[in-house]
Each structure stands twice: as structure tokens, then as C-alpha cells.
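Key result, reporting period 2: structure in, sequence out.
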């Protein structure tokens, strides 16, 4: 399916895009697992069958990076993994903590939390879930030799103690206001099995406690899962769950309307009107922050005035109106208003094409903006606006893993990406992207600031929410003064959904909670 002529004309009027260099990387790979699941390809055939009444197919814009829940920092990967694995706590649609593998918890003192674990839960290989698995999982994430990208989420944890088979004590180094939100996005793995088979085999044959069991993964083709008939909360309503990576929007929508897919993620707002014939658009306010990141150690972005000018060159409201049909919010800081840590006092940098041109017009460097296929359109639009202000900007579209490697190693001059803030707390962005200790495992922009480090550290160890808000207000102002980012926008999460799908509600954090979904006639 192609964009409507109206959408194309608005796009052509948006920015001058001539001369952009686009390179796309994709390809097949080995198959992991038994390879017998529906939709797994043989001989490079990437076409999954149309769904049966017991088969639910979900299309995302990109493939997963791994099936090891502790070795990624990627939302599409998390979406798949959390159907196979579970955490101590989960989050409801208001981002509040709710029980999952822990039924209840209490704070014993400022540094100690007690978690009571769900009894009668087994992993998919029959191994009983208990407190040793919780201890093992958290310590695995925090082990420096494991080099987990998720370690910073739980860095405040000092120790994990098994009190009894179904009770765990977690002690933190400082008061930890974000502990529950961090635990909600870090899943539990079976201690005996993981230690026995090792990391590589565990990722190839993962075992969790979730509503679906892993069958196979054919990279760039499909992840195939089956219903866990012994799931502690009852067997799922569908027998098979398939995740298919379909980077191109038109292809995702075509697969949805043909019946090959029942849920398609990341539908552009201007295309929702083209859904029909047994499909519809379903949306929910999102928690994703889109941004242009600039490497402050590389020319021309090693100059603050160039970074300020890049912020002035981007007309965010035009991006929202033309690309999102108003179904997104302009950001003036690395946070959206509902996030803990958002500051009304931070003004950001307004669009000023003339001021931007005075600086960017004198730059001589050609700037490559790295992107994935999922963010290509937005990257092209931003690059076009930078070009209009005089910066020679090119878009380089990379396969997902190559993109991650590029930005985390510091090889990017600039990149356009998004960061999901499922926890609803600014710590998720501030500590990961602007805190010096995090540069040890992810370079990103290379930006550090001693004063900012202190503010972030204090905010991470303060339980008084009013005090945390004040600390983050100061931190946000420093970030927007030094501007290693151009904060862009916060869009709604929009899905294309078949009318076959019953019992599903979209999640603001993009997660697919489909254990209770059933499929009716189309």
C-alpha cells in the first residue's frame, strides 16, 4: 500500500530532501531453536502463512537482537522477550507497579525491600521458580563480566539475599525510588539451566515462566512461540504467537489487510485512514521520546554553537503536523509532561531558521545521520530541515544491530533514535544518556558534565519526590544549555488491528500483552 497523494504532497512540501544518501542493510541469518514453528523459513523463504484461528501474528518494524533478556536494550526485543519471560513486578496502563512473579512487597527500611514470590510457578523446562532464580538473575545482570546493557537499570542494588524459598531481600546502596520500575523491565531466568548451558546456548534455547514458550527464531523473518499450557495464570487464548519483522510500513499494512498479520505496530498517523476491510487503527498515549543525538567529540558538533543551531533549525511542530497528523507532542527537553522529572521551567530552544542558518551555513563538514529503517522518514525530514539551514546532512540507514553497534561505540557523528520510557521516570533517560558512569558501556554522544553527574546521582538516591523533581529540573536545564540532543517529539502508539482480535488493549510502553487474546472471524 502506498501513501495517499495528499500525504505525498504534504511530505514534498515539508522539506527539501534532494541529495540525501540512503543505504539500507538487511539480510537473513541462522535459525535458532527447533525451527519447527509456523512461519520459520526454510531456504530463505520469509513469507509466513496466514493466521489460523489459533495463530496470532504480530508485525513489528524491526527484528529482535537476542532472546537473552539480560543482553539487550531494545524495545522490539523487549516486546518479544516479555511474552516468554516475566519480571518480579509488571506495570499497568498507568505505569504503576503491579504483581507478576512477586505477589507483594514491602520496604523494610530505607535500603531494604522484601519481595514475596508467587508459589507453584515453573519454568518452561519444568524447573521450579524460587528465590534462587531471582538472586541469580539480578546478580547476572549486575556482574561486570556479563556486561549486560541493562546493568545501569539495577545499579542501585547492593545485594540480594534468599530469605527462604519464596522470599527475597533486596538491599540497595542508597534509597532507591526507581527500584520497582527497574525490576519491572528486567526478567527472571532459571538459575540452574542458564548456568548449565551457558550464555550462547541459553540465548538460542531460552526458557522463561511466561505465557508463551520459545520455538524458533529465524533472523529477519520470524520468532515463533507456542502457548504455555501450564502457565500459572491459565493457558493463553491462542495456540501460536508469531512476531514478524516488517520494516516497511506499506508492507506491514499490506500484511495486515491480507490477513497474514493480525496486529501491526507503528502505523503512521497519516495512513490510519487507509485501514479498512476488517482492520482498524487503535492508539494509546506513548512513552517514547524521539531525538537527534549529536556526538560532542566530533566536528562540527564539538562546537556548542553548532549544536544550538541544529536545535534552532528543526521545526518540530511542522514534523508533528505533517508526519504525525498532530498525533504527537513537541518536546522542548528530553522528557514528556507526565514523566517524573519533566520541568515546566525548562524553555528549550525555539525554531529560528534565520539564526540557525547564520551558524550552519558556515560549516564545511558533511554530517551523516545514522538511522534505522523504522525512523527513516523522520530522519529524512530532520536532515532536510538541517540542509535548508545550510548543514550538509546525509541519512545513513543501518540494520538494527549495526545501528546499535555504531552509536554505542561512539562511531556516529549524529543519529536519530527513540528511547522508550516505560518507567515514566526521567532517570531512564538521564542516567543512561547523560551520566558519566554510563559512558563505560555506551558512548552515545560522549557528553559528560561533572555538575550534572552529581544531580543525577542525587536524584537516583532521593525518595522525596519533590526533591527529585527539583534535582531533575536543574539537570534538564544543564542538558538543554549544553544541547547534546535535539529533543524532537513524543508520538502516540498507533497499531493496525484486525477485527478478528478480541480482548487486546494497546500498552503505552509498546508491550504486547496477548495472553488473554482470542481470535474471532474476520
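The corresponding designed sequence is given below.
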Amino acid at each position: 500500500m502506498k501513501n495517499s497523494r495528499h500525504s505525498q504532497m504534504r511530505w514534498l512540501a515539508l522539506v527539501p530532501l534532494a541529495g540525501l544518501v540512503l543505504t539500507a542493510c538487511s539480510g537473513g541469518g541462522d535459525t535458532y531453536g527447533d525451527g519447527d514453528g509456523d512461519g520459520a523459513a526454510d531456504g530463505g523463504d520469509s513469507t509466513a502463512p496466514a493466521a489460523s484461528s489459533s495463530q496470532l501474528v504480530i508485525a513489528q518494524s524491526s527484528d529482535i537482537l537476542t532472546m537473552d533478556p539480560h543482553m539487550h536494550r531494545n524495545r522490539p526485543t523487549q516486546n518479544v522477550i516479555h511474552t516468554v519471560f516475566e519480571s518480579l513486578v509488571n506495570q499497568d496502563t498507568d505505569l504503576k507497579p503491579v504483581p507478576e512473579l512477586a505477589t507483594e512487597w514491602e520496604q523494610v527500611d530505607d535500603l531494604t525491600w522484601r519481595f514475596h514470590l508467587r508459589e507453584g510457578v515453573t519454568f518452561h523446562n519444568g524447573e521450579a521458580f524460587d528465590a534462587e532464580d531471582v538472586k541469580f538473575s539480578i546478580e547476572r545482570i549486575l556482574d561486570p563480566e556479563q556486561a549486560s546493557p541493562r546493568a545501569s537499570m539495577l545499579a542501585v542494588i547492593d545485594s540480594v539475599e534468599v530469605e527462604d524459598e519464596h522470599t527475597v531481600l533486596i538491599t540497595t546502596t542508597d534509597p532507591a525510588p526507581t527500584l520497582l520500575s527497574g525490576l519491572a523491565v528486567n526478567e527472571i531466568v532459571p538459575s540452574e539451566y542458564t548456568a548449565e548451558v551457558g550464555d550462547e546456548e541459553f540465548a538460542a534455547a531460552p526458557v522463561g515462566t511466561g505465557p508463551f514458550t520459545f520455538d524458533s527464531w529465524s533472523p529477519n523473518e520470524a520468532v515463533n512461540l507456542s502457548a504455555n499450557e501450564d502457565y500459572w495464570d491459565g493457558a493463553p487464548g491462542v495456540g501460536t504467537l508469531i512476531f514478524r519483522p516488517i520494516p516497511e510500513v506499506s508492507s506491514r499494512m499490506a500484511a495486515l489487510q491480507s490477513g497474514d498479520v493480525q496486529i501491526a505496530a507503528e502505523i503512521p498517523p497519516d495512513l490510519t485512514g487507509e485501514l479498512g476491510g476488517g482492520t482498524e487503527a487503535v492508539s494509546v498515549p506513548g512513552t517514547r521520546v524521539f531525538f537527534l543525538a549529536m556526538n560532542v567529540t566530533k566536528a562540527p558538533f564539538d562546537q556548542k554553537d553548532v549544536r544550538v543551531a541544529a536545535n534552532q533549525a528543526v521545526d518540530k511542530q511542522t514534523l508533528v503536523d505533517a508526519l504525525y497528523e498532530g498525533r504527537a507532542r513537541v518536546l522542548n527537553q528530553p522528557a514528556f509532561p507526565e514523566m517524573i522529572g519533566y520541568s515546566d521551567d525548562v524553555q528549550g530552544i525555539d525554531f529560528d531558521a534565520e539564526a540557525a542558518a547564520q551558524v550552519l551555513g558556515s560549516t564545511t563538514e558533511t554530517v551523516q545521520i545514522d538511522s534505522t529503517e523504522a525512523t527513516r522518514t523522520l530522519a529524512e525530514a530532520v536532515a532536510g530541515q538541517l540542509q535548508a539551514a545550510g548543514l550538509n546532512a546525509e541519512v545513513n540507514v543501518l540494520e538494527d544491530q549495526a545501528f546499535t553497534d555504531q552509536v554505542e561505540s561512539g562511531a556516529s557523528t549524529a543519529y536519530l533514535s527513540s528511547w522508550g520510557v516505560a518507567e515514566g521516570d526521567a532517570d531512564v533517560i538521564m542516567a543512561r544518556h547523560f551520566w558519566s558512569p554510563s559512558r563505560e558501556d555506551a558512548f552515545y554522544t560522549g557528553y559528560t558534565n561533572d555538575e550534572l553527574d552529581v544531580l543525577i546521582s542525587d536524584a537516583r538516591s532521593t525518595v522525596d519526590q519533590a526533591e527529585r523533581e527539583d534535582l531533575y529540573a536543574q539537570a534538564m536545564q544543564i542538558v538543554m544549555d549544553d544541547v547534546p540532543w535535539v529533543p524532537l517529539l513524543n508520538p502516540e502508539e498507533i497499531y493496525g488491528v484486525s477485527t478478528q482480535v478480541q480482548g487486546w488493549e494497546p500498552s503505552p510502553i509498546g508491550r504486547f500483552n496477548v495472553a488473554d487474546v482470542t481470535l474471532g472471524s474476520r
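Residues 187 and 217 are 19 Å apart (CA to CA). The longest helix spans residues 465-482. This case is discussed further under Risks and Mitigation.
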